[in-house]
Amino acid sequence: GKGMDGFSVCVDGKTTPACVTTSDGLFTLAGVSYLDDGMLKVTKTGYRPLYVMMGRKQVSSAFAAWVLTDAELKAEAALAKVSPKTGTGNLGIFIIGPSGGLKDAKVALAKKVGDGPIYYGDNIKPDPAKTSSAKHGHLLWFNIPAGDHELIVTPPNSAVVCKPEFARSSTGKNRFKVTIKADGDTYTQVICK
Questions:
Q1: Phi, psi at residue 79, to the nearest 5°?
Q2: Where are the alpha helices (DSSP H) in 59-185?
Q3: Looking at residue 15, what is its pLDDT?
């Protein structure tokens, strides 16, 4: 994918250190370790705020797709047949298997809230009729109340263990915590082996 340049990046809740992504979408935050707890906040005028669990030092094409303008979010929501609600947040998830996206995985929130999951089809568009992940492993969850939520991933094979790539807060086998911000989009990846 194409790098997302000109986006401001900082640790959520702090104004320094801060930096701006380069033309290839990369950035470095001085004095911030990729292992630190917290979330990165990625912003640019005309785009919705994006929150990314700590654990990576670059804005890569994997989550660049989740940096959405309000118009793009409305288009995705229309395809998913949901209406975005003010004061809630959205969650983008990429489930990664041994050779790319993990097909036939299912995702749930321990507490049933929001509109989702909405799995992407093989054409990389939201498909409300799908009940598990397609070959790309992408899915969306709209209108989740702000706060901490427990995400449960059920891989197609029960021997597979899934762990969050960014967050370090597992809550059990194939379960972990995600933090949702109001009026923003949160992105996370799940590695399944």
A1: -60, -35
A2: 61-64, 70-80
A3: 80
